[in-house]
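This part of the workshop introduces the protein records we will be handling. The structure tokens are whole numbers drawn from a learned vocabulary of backbone shapes. The record below serves as our worked example for the rest of this section.

===
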Amino acid sequence: MTFFDDDNPNYSKADGELMQQALEEAARKLRIEDDNDPECKVLARFVRAAFIIGNRDTKAMASFAVDAVLVRRKAAQHVSLGNYR
């Protein structure tokens, strides 16, 4: 997943670069090396969410995304048939 897209009308190039830096930092922290890893797309959505709510600090956006993915991982470990908490 990349935020670099010159034709994207939603974000400026600078905004895309900011989100890309946050995504790369978050992926490094979680040791996600493959861009095709489904968790990488989830991570990108959380980076974008942090950006949308006004966060412009790459370290904070990365930390937010990492925490969100870790919560999802933990929740996935506890979900079993009939247990949807």
About this structure: Residues 13-78 form one domain. The chain is about 65% helix and 0% strand.
